[in-house]
Amino acid sequence: MKIQIPEFSVVVVIGTSGSGKSTFCKKHFLPTEILSSDAFRGLVSDDENRQDISGQAFEALHFVLEKRLELGRLTVIDATNVQKESRAQLLRIASKWHALKVAIVIDTPEEVCLERNKTRPDRQFGPHVIRNQYREMRRSFGAFRQERWHKTYTITPENMEQVVVERERSWTKNPDEHGPFDIIGDVHGCIDELRDLLNQLGWQIEPELSHPKQRKLIFVGDLVDRGPDSVGVLRLVMDAVERGIAYCVPGNHDIKLVKALRGQKVQLNHGLDATMAQLSLEHVDFRKRVQEFLYGLVSHQVLDDGKLCVAHAGLKENMQGRGSAAVREFCMYGETTGEIDEFGLPVRQNWAKDYDGHALVVFGHTPVPQAEFFNNTIDIDTGCCFGGKLSALKYPEREVVCVSANRTYVVPARPLDSPATPFALAIDDGILDIEEVLGRRSIETELHHRITIREENAIAALEVMSRFAVDPRWLIYLPPTMSPCQTSLKDGYLEHPDEALDYYRKAGVTHVVCQEKHMGSRAIAIVTQQSGDAEKRFGVPSEELGIITTRTGRRFFNDAEIVKQILVRLRAAAEKANLFTEFNTSWLLLDLELMPWSAKAMGLLQTQYAPVSAAANHSANARMEIARKLQERGIDGATEYYELAQAKQESVEKYRDAYRRYCWNVTSVEDYKLAPFHLLASEGAVHSNKSHLWHMEKLKSLCAQDPAILRETPFKIVELDNKDSWQDAVDWWMQLTNKGGEGMVVKPLNFLEFEANQVLQPAIKCRGPEYLRIIYGPEYLLPANLDRLRRRGISRKRALASREFALGLEGLQRFVGRESIRRVHECVFGVLALESEPVDPRL
Amino acid sequence: MLLISTTHQPATDLGYLLHKNPNRMHTSNVSFGKVTVAFTEADVERATAILDVDIDPIGLSRKSPDSNKSVEPYLNDRPYTANSYVSVAIAEAFGTAMSARSKERPDLAKASIPLEIRIPVLPVRYGIGFLSALFEPLGYKVEAAQLDLDEKFPEWGKAPYFDVSLTGTQLLSDALRHLYILLPVLDAKKHYFMSSDEVSKILQKGEGWLANHPNKDSILQSYLGRRPSLIQEAISQLASVESQIDEASSEGEVELVPAANPAPSLHSIRHSRVAEVVRQMHPSSVVDLGCGEGKLIRLLIPIQGIQKILGLEVSYSTLERTIRKFKLDEDGTRYGNRLEFIHGSLMYRDARISGFDVATVVEVIEHLDGPRLGAFERVLFEFARPKCAIITTPNREYNVLYGGIELRHEDHRFEWTRAEFKNWADNICSRFHYRVQIESIGEVDDNYGAPSQMAVFTQ
User: Fold this and answer.
1) Nearest Cβ partner of B74 from A436, A460, A842?
2) Of A419, A440, A820, B450, which residue is the least packed, with the fewest Cβ within 10 Å?
């Protein structure tokens, strides 16, 4: 006897005590798949046979069942399940999670059960219990038939040994099918437009449908009705599906047609009458073929490792890949409330508004004027039969291709561009839920797999994010922290380029780029092309041209006027450098250094750097005066005292010079300097797949447009296996830092480099000795101090840098992929949370 | 660093009084560095002893528990200023002199002599007035020159340090004990040597002068930090002390208390009024958004009929402190399970705060960034949707009467006039279908209104 179990189902085993349920379960299922009521009795009360705590035991069992179903795991319930009520509870839970329901009745004769129980010393209940259970089971068999099981099996002692359990893969899941795909919107019998569209997508229609690049088609359903030639469309699609070059999911019109063909009673309206008329002219075999084809369609398809989901009316994340009646219903009609709008059409809930799933959902059903990405979903029904367009989505390219309808075949009840069209209004409203950020979180990233955010870090980030950060709709990226190079052992140096270059050499990188580290503050700038873009693309209801934020997501300037002036200049420069056109974008995201440092750090300067300097210099001068007098008096030890006083005085003077280099007064916009070093993202693209040379060149052309406020970043490309090239980089660093410069940043020439599948540090900083006085104190270079400071560990900092880097880019990928603001914010929030990890801030 | 000079004749006696040979360098190691005593002059007419405390900044910051928190420890004014480390050094180097003992000059040790004390870099909190208020009653003439923050940037103003000279005729032991206590008092930074025997130290070193010092309260408060228990202990042990220290002031910044201020603060007037309005609503549930340390909640707890009080606070450290104060960390069901505190934010939709009869938002909105006020409005009025919301905020017009300050708190992002507040409230009403009544809080001025304003929104 063969038992077929769908891979995502709740298997309820029914039978009295002693019927052999547990033995059966253990034989055919994994121990972790089986939830046994006796085991739960034991878990909550230390006694597997205790009956008076059934309530608690089942409550715990149901809880675990829900968690398993939430995670999509097949689960077997090993309990007597003889009562209708106890089964009803399980069925309710299964329905809630859209799991299929399988019942297996172990029908072992009462006497056998009684006999078995006698031999079990731990069973204390008498024979009446089993008799009652047996009776109850028999009695509830009547109800059993009405319980809407997907499959039921009965096992008797005779066939028990021959049972084979097979798992059926869900028909809706095709993870190994990677395309590439051309996904076609609602065709509704518009065969001419379909042919045009296929042509445009590069398909050859004669002699038989084929694509030179082996692409595959997916139809989102509603092949028939309304348009002129449903039969022609059906023929084309059926041929393609049967030849294995196309998938099709059913639409509500298709399903209604099957019903009509099968002789069920349906209203012949909305074009079904015409379709039936067309079909009546066809051979009966063709009608039969159509009927079988449409009947066999699976509600939706999850493809490409779960990254793509196609369903006629869309699908929520917790229904994807599942097969309950509710799932099929949703696929067909979406979420309706029963309300009827002013056009007499059902009001459709905008499920996409709350969608934040991993899979891109491609759907149709609701005609919209334009196919546009929204929260990682896209509606590609552009109302061809209503005189709109027939659209296709190229996947994974995420390009929309469309052809206009030849004419209006049907006048729609609701005008296509009516503002009531729910999906056209679907701009994210930017209100996030606290549940999406608080607590321990785990974020899936492309670069670094899963990144865990600890609860205490999320707590810290919540405060910063709430009190200081800009609108989350603007905040699509935070830069990662940057690790310094390994500590140098060279005399007089804490950091030296040798160690920075060596990190990449050892990791097998051949070329790096060394960029001068500007003496400013890290900033992220978004600049839009024209007014209205901020609202259109970012959903921020403002006239702002863009935004400049700090590395922790705060507004860089409190003065809106300054930001505006800078952004006006930046926008003009980007326009002149042709960047908006080149990248076909309405916005650019720049990673940059903004100078002077005093513009941002005035508070720190005036409360910390300058006071220490004032005290240190005055104190050093006083000590020098004392030292001179002691020398004059010829006191023993005065010379050593004098020398130390002098060394200290020199240190504190140098410290003062070091921080002063970061300060200049700003009176007009041109006193600010912006030095961009990454052109990080533009519409549809995160430019982390380009080399740093590419970034430098693009930004050079940008900076050239407005040198008064834009400053190029000087850089050098270094061949790591070439000694001269290496020495050249060291000399350059010496030159920069001898003048008091901050030092340089070393990056692999390619934005992303890996070693053993781990992403390398995106950048390593190597700071100059004078600059480090600001970090480690005026006197850090005195030999006794330097030796102690060399004991510093950078591994934590590096681990953090990698994770923040991965999260930052993930957030950007999600943003350019038009995923929901929640999914973007999750990453940005994660970076901020990681920044609260206790790491030596001097690194 | 510290320089002590005398013109007592013969001035060389200073060496005997300090127990240090004027012709040698005296160095000793202490846990935080090295202490040097030497004489830059030692003539019959005049002698000057120097106390140089060479603080090891690296050692200091490596020990600091905060070293992971901010740049501060490595970049620190401690090595360069006269602070509590110098106090410790004084006791270390001049212990005998402090107790007015001298083997060679026992009588002189008990006699007043002309002294001049120079402190090149003295941190002075509250400015020069505080410095004078501390030393002049003790019989010193005070001269002080404030250091520039950075002479290259004169617009940055002055540094919080003074080059100070104190002259007066004093017992040397007294002068040392004055310095021992008053250096940490003047220093706004944390007193590094805070321990439970601080009280006995201050009593011992303050013997004979502290009890009669007109500013002894400020001295005690500053020296002992924000520790009401220590302060009380010291007060009760100092003879003839009747003054009280307001417990409230121990929570905030220690202030130089100019005079008793018997009038209730604006803060408490506001809380009382809000609690009164809540009482009149007869709510069964109240959520206090931005509850801080729970001062309003203390007033809500006694109100009968409220079955649930929820305090929401964005600062986790404040929240933890508050939970401890209410002792909910020991027993979460105190107050009959009516009271709960949660960590949350007004920038995020939060199911936990929805469905309340009353929401109070007291002096919170002015801490929100202007552009993000919109998020708060929706979180409160669209999603949480309390039956009644009570919101208070300062009235900017009244700032004229505070000397024309721009904003009352450095974290205030804005303050509204009465008209601006009303506009905002009316706009809320029309967007979210509430009605509003606005009233003023605090003493009303004819021209500028009251210091604070309150809007009561009802559905």
Assistant:
1) A842
2) A419
Q: How many angstroms separate the Cα of B209 from the Cα of each of B124, B171, B200, B205?
A: 21, 12, 15, 9
Q: Using CA of residue A570, residue A575, residue A578, residue A583, what is the dihedral sign? A: positive
Tokens of A146: 């009405």
The predicted model gives A316-326 an average pLDDT of 87
Q: Where are the domains of chain A?
A: 2-168, 173-425, 597-660
Q: Report which of residues A672 and A1 the model is more confident about.
A: A672
Domains of chain B (ranges; CATH) run: 2-193 (3.30.1610.20), 266-458 (3.40.50.150)
Looking at the predicted structure, is the pLDDT value of residue A427 above 50? Answer: no
User: CATH for A173-425?
Assistant: 3.60.21.10
The predicted model gives A514-529 an average pLDDT of 94
Residue the block writes with tokens 């077929």: A4
Please provide residue B247's backbone torsions phi and psi, each rounded to the nearest 5 degrees.
Answer: -65, -30
Question: pLDDT value at position B259?
Answer: 35
**Separation of alpha carbons B74 and A772, rounded Å:** 11
Strand A9-14, strand A100-106: pairing = parallel
What confidence tens digit (pLDDT) does each residue in A55-110 have?
Answer: 999 999 999 999 999 999 999 999 999 888 888 899 999 988 999 999 999 988 88
The per-type count for chain A, helices as H runs and strands as E runs, is 26, 35
The residue of B64, B74, B186 whose CB has the most chain A CBs within 10 angstroms, and thus the best one to mutate to test that interface, is B74
Q: Which chain A residue has its CA at the smallest distance from B320's CA? A: A459
Q: Decide: A250 and A223 in contact? Cβ < 8 Å.
A: no
Rounded Cα distance between A528 and A538, Å, is 10
B320 touches chain A (CB under 8 A): no
User: Which structure tokens are listed for B136?
Assistant: 């002049």
Candidate from A462, A606, A626 with C-beta closest to B40: A626
Q: Are B91 and B180 in contact (CB under 8 A)?
A: yes
B433 touches chain A (CB under 8 A): no
- Which residues 617-636 in chain A show a CB within 8 A of chain B? 618-623, 626, 629-630, 633, 635-636
Q: Are A395 and A180 in contact (CB under 8 A)?
A: yes
The percentage of chain B sitting over the pLDDT mark of 70, rounded to a whole number, equals 86
d(CA B223, CA A51): 68
Q: For strand A449-453 and strand A511-516, is the pairing parallel, antiparallel, or unpaired?
A: unpaired
Under the banding of pLDDT at 50, 70 and 90, the label for residue B97 is very high
Other beta carbons within 10 Å of B107: 7
Residue A671, SS3 per DSSP: helix
**Cβ-based neighbours of A641, under 8 Å, separated by 6 or more:** A627, A630, B25, B36, B38
- Do the Cβ atoms of B58 and A777 come within 8 Å? yes
pLDDT bucket at A426, cuts 50 / 70 / 90: very low
Asked if the model's pLDDT at residue B65 lies above 70, the reply is no
By DSSP bridging, strand B308-313 and strand B112-123 are unpaired
Token output for A94: 């299964």
C-alpha–C-alpha distance, residues B57 and B48, integer Å? 27
Who contacts A463 (Cβ-Cβ below 8 Å, separation ≥6)?
Answer: B314, B315, B316, B345
The reply to whether residue B38 touches residue A789, judged by beta carbons under 8 angstroms, is no
User: A381: closest CA among A346, A341, A334, A343?
Assistant: A334
Report yes or no: A637 at the B interface, CB cutoff 8 Å.
yes
Cα separation, A245 vs A339, in Å, equals: 40
Strand partners, B392: B362, B454
In this predicted structure, what is the pLDDT of residue B35?
Answer: 95
Amino acid code (one letter) for A49: N
Q: Which among B399, B411, B273, B291 is positioned nearest to B340, based on CA atoms?
A: B291
Residue B208 has pLDDT above 70, yes or no: yes
> Which residue would you say has higher pLDDT here, A312 or A661?
A312
Tokens found for residue A787: 């030796």
